[in-house]
Amino acid sequence: MTVKLPLNSKRPAKRVGIGARPPANPHAEAWIRQGGADALNKGDLYTARLTLDITPALRARIKVSAFTQGVTVADLLRGLLECEFPEHRKENTP
Asked: What are phi and psi of 66, to 5 degrees?
């Protein structure tokens, strides 16, 4: 068998075929499509985005605090905002 070299190449041209996709497990495919057994889409809970301008130093302190607590920055800030602005405030009721 003779291999023809392309004009500007030192390596032989090879064609490697990609095999067929293995048969899929329909239960696994359905589980992946729904996002896992107990997964909840963040969009189901949080539907608004809030953007704040803060100093790099404050951002660093927030990130360190979230890391030491083992939570994400978003979860840490959501918790703080929930504490400060609960759904039912006593001073807002007549």
From this structure: -65, -45
Could you give the C-alpha distances from 3 to 46, 52, 66, 93, in angstroms and in order? 60, 62, 60, 85
Residues 3 and 1: their CA atoms lie apart, in Å, by 7
Q: What's the pLDDT score for residue 31?
A: 74
Q: CA 59 to CA 77: how far, in whole Å? A: 11
Name the amino acid, one letter, at 41: N
Cα 62 from chain centre: 20
- Helices assigned H by DSSP within the chain: 26-34, 42-45, 56-69, 73-84
* 84: its two tokens: 């400060």
pTM beyond 0.70, yes or no? no
Q: Check if the beta carbon of residue 52 is closer than 8 Å to that of residue 45.
A: no
